[in-house]
Design goal:
The complex is a heterodimer of chains A (114) and B (114).
Chain A (H helix, E strand, L loop, with lengths): L4 E3 L2 E4 L5 E6 L6 E7 L5 E8 L2 E4 L8 E4 L6 E5 L8 E8 L8 E2 L3 E5 L1
Parallel strand pairs in A: 2-11
Antiparallel strand pairs in A: 1-3, 3-8, 4-5, 4-9, 5-6, 7-8, 9-10, 9-11
Chain B lengths: L3 E2 L4 E5 L4 E3 L2 E2 L6 E8 L6 E7 L7 E2 L2 E6 L4 E6 L8 E9 L6 E2 L3 E6 L1
Parallel strand pairs in B: 2-12
Antiparallel strand pairs in B: 1-4, 3-9, 5-6, 5-10, 7-8, 8-9, 10-11, 10-12
Classes of the chains: A mainly beta (114), B mainly beta (114).
Chain lengths: 114, 114
């Protein structure tokens, strides 16, 4: 799973700032999934993207959160006007095809909102 | 209803002994996949093992094996010959049918004692 690269590893923002989290999937993987982990909890699905398309964003808050996976470059999870409740670990996973058991996660980005 | 239940919040195990982590699941879909991930204190999610609902044999990967009891809807992870490096949080997760989303349990913390 070392192939899924997320950065930054840690991100500190003040309330009201924007947070940008980046994810480069494993080579050959065109399916990207974002999950959020609150303290002491399991991961919760946020959004599923393929190149240039959002397939399912049902787990993502309607306000302030957006995601993209452009033709070139990493997938970006963007959180505008962050609040303390956004503090969490955000994980990206990738797979070669939809529904593959070969689903590997990155090391996550720990977002702390002051 | 909880789709994945991990009833053991924390466990201690002696080095070189085996430990079993419980996981029960709830689904009405005959096709599903079960995953186990390890999350050490550094935070990354490491894929350990996968079991498909139609797989005839229990999955094994090195020191990890999955005790899959379909009728009881349980998918317990067995770690044999525990090592200090096995100390981590362990998550059970499920994907149902053609869905791509994983549902995670709350996790079990394992502490290996020397």
């Amino acid at each position: 799973n070392a192939g899924v690269m997320q950065n930054p590893r840690h991100l500190v923002r003040r309330r009201g700032q924007e947070a940008r989290l980046r994810c480069s999937p494993m080579k050959g993987h065109s399916h990207v999934y974002w999950y959020r982990q609150l303290p002491e909890e399991g991961l919760k699905f946020m959004v599923y993207l393929q190149k240039e398309n959002i397939i399912d964003e049902s787990g993502m808050p309607k306000e302030r959160f957006s995601a993209e996976f452009p033709k070139e470059g990493p997938s970006i999870l963007r959180i505008q006007q962050v609040v303390r409740g956004d503090s969490a670990a955000y994980f990206c996973a990738s797979s070669p095809i939809q529904g593959s058991e070969k689903l590997f996660f990155g090391s996550g980005t720990q977002l702390s909102v002051l | 209803a909880q789709k994945i239940t991990q009833t053991q919040p924390g466990m201690f195990v002696q080095e070189k002994e085996a430990v079993t982590l419980d996981c029960t699941y709830d689904t009405s879909d005959p096709s599903y996949g079960l995953f186990w991930y390890k999350q050490p204190s550094s935070g990354e999610m490491i894929f350990l093992i996968y079991q498909g609902s139609y797989d005839q044999q229990n999955a094994t990967e090195g020191r990890y094996s999955l005790n899959f009891q379909k009728a009881r809807k349980s998918a317990n992870l067995v770690i044999s010959a525990s090592q200090l490096g096995d100390s981590a949080m362990y998550f059970c997760a499920m994907r149902e049918g053609d869905d791509y989303k994983l549902s995670f349990g709350a996790g079990t913390t394992v502490t290996v004692r020397a």
